[in-house]
């Protein structure tokens, strides 16, 4: 029965409380208070309205207090491809921990699809068709997959055009065996055997071999941006290929609805958008 005390509790001005009451009365089409000099009292409609809504208001307050008192989730498990973890996630780790201090992020690497039921992962980073949906899962695009050839600065001096690839060693990676054939097709090169050269068990190993001058590898732009900027790797040619299978964040709905997981996913997506904007 005091706009002043209500204003103090809500940390607003008495005038703001009065305006909200007037707005509510206008909406209901009935007065809720009799306004006397220095005091107010509920009208009959006001008393009835309060009696009917007070239980709901109490439930809202109780639910809010319960959520506020629950301990914050402090552990999240992520499954990612080894090369992706090494070349994108780990470099983002300092900023991630600054954004989520005290959060225990357990990172597992695997080339196989995440087993959400057995391993209980909250987030998996997978290469999936753009726009993919799965019942019971939440999927968001994280990074575009844009590929092009890279090599060491020394080798780059010997490669002036795509035709010069016939005189160098092509470096392949087992998890993505179609990258070279697809890029060569995009570039319109039909005279080169796309399967010749050296094979490595991971993209990271192939890129290390390229950096050491062993040959030319196919790189995913988002995973080599820093090395290209520093000059340790050189991008060859202006031809790039955008895959229809980007890196995507996948979470079972039970995890995706958790506030901490949802916040972490949003942070990762925002960082991914930065990498996408920086793509050449």
From TrEMBL:
Classification via SUPFAM superfamilies: Periplasmic binding protein-like II, Winged helix' DNA-binding domain
Q: What protein name does the entry list?
A: LysR family transcriptional regulator
| Keywords, alphabetical | DNA-binding, Transcription, Transcription regulation
State the similarity comment.
Answer: Belongs to the LysR transcriptional regulatory family.
Query: Which CDD domains is this protein grouped with?
Result: PBP2_GcdR_TrpI_HvrB_AmpR_like
Keyword Hydrolase listed? The answer is no
Q: Where is the HTH lysR-type domain?
A: 1-43
InterPro entries reported in the protein's UniProt record: LysR-type_TF_proteobact-type, LysR_HTH_N, LysR_subst-bd, WH-like_DNA-bd_sf, WH_DNA-bd_sf
Pfam families xref list? HTH_1, LysR_substrate
Originating organism: Sneathiella chinensis
